[in-house]
Each structure stands twice: as structure tokens, then as C-alpha cells.
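Case study 2.
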Amino acid sequence: MVVDKEHMEYISWHSLYLALVEIASRIRNDNYVPDIIVGILKGGIIPARILSDLLSVDVIGFIGVRFYRRVGVRESRPELTLPPMPSVRGKKVLVADDVIETGRTLQLVLDELSRYGASEIRSATVYVKKRSPVFPDYYYKVTDKWVVFPWEYVETAKEVGDLEEIVGEDKQLYIVVKKEFLTT
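Prediction:
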């Protein structure tokens, strides 16, 4: 699948933080208090860190899964690249990711965390694709577009070209990154 700028949605740093505040409020309103937040590498690490701050969860871990080769191009199935760290045995876990497209990565992670002995697992992502058969417990928005996060400027621009027209309020930041890392 080739993704063009017309089919992309950008979320700014400011909007991302507000989205995570909304997600954290829902988690808190459900009285769910995780012992650990596990971010799915790579996209879930930043949401995991922000959620840990908002929810006052001291322990952050990660689990590695590879599914995408590049913008819009997936492998045939997700592959576990790193087991969950630190241990989740007997712990209430909140899984954090940036986006769910097919749900296959999330399902793999939920299965692995169960296998590693987590006592309760809930999930949170910023975006969910409309066509996903799997939805997380908590999410901010449903979309059918390719979501560009602010930590993906370089890799996305290298695939699809200049992103200046879609980065909105982060335009000045993008221009600095573009000047330093996207010029030849």
C-alpha cells in the first residue's frame, strides 16, 4: 500500500499530549491502577512514558514487535523481537501503543503478556484504524488515515516527501528537522 499525503493525518506534540490526558482520565475514571506500563517498541514508548507520568506509575517496560517495514508496508505477520521487560508476572499491566491498524500486534502482545504471567492486562492506543477487528480498552480517536506522529518526521518524509503542508502547529519544528536531517 502506497500512502500519499492526502491520506495522512498528523498529530502535533501538543495534540498528542492532550489525547493522552484524555486517555489517562478514562483509565483513572475506570479505577484501573496498573503496576507497570509496557510500551510496544517503537511507537508505544513515548505514549507509555507520558501515561506513566499522568497516572503516576513508576515502572515502565517495553516489548518488541516488528510488523512494518516502512510507511504503509507490513510484514506478513507481526514478530516478537524482545520479550517483555521487566517482569510482568503477577502484575496489572497497561499496554501502550501509538496506533492499531489490524490488531495483530496488540493481540500478539496480549498473548505474550498472559504467557509471561501478567495478572490483568488492559491496553491503550492513541489511534485505532476503522477496519481493525481488535480495539484497545482505551483510545483517543478512530481514523482511516495513515497517522504521522511527531517522532516520525524523518522516516515518513524519506518515504513520501516533504511533510511541511501537513504538520500544522509543529511546522517550525519540522523545518528545523528538515534542514538538519532531510537535506542532501
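Strands lie at 8-10, 36-41, 59-70, 73-85, 92-100, 120-129, 138-143, 146-148.
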